[in-house]
Specification:
The protein is mainly α and 98 residues long. It has three helices and no strands.
């Protein structure tokens, strides 16, 4: 039972400057997010074109695949854009557990 008082004293405070390379790693993650957003835009455009051609050519399969691609690409862009807020929310939520 002597372990519990020691565990109660442990704290976690995320700080990107605590280790060497923290700011550079943040730049890498920002770059990856930018590439992912560019990919989402490209996917959205391609899916919209597939949707349009499928609808115009009376091909319900291609129209459905295009609609699904538009939704997935838009959802991916939303998740990428909200990723920092989601992670910060979860960190703050986890920090409130006692």
């Amino acid at each position: 039972m002597a372990v519990l008082p020691v565990l109660a004293q442990v704290t976690v405070s995320p700080n990107q400057g605590s280790l060497p390379g923290g700011p550079q790693l943040e730049q890498v993650v920002n770059g990856l997010a930018a590439f992912a957003l560019i990919g989402s835009v490209a996917g959205l455009i391609i899916a919209a074109v597939v949707w349009a051609f499928g609808a115009h050519s009376q091909n319900p399969h291609h129209a459905h695949v295009g609609k699904r691609g538009v939704l997935f690409a838009a959802g991916a862009a939303g998740i990428i854009g909200a990723s920092a807020a989601l992670v910060n929310f979860m960190v703050n939520l986890g920090g409130q557990v006692h």
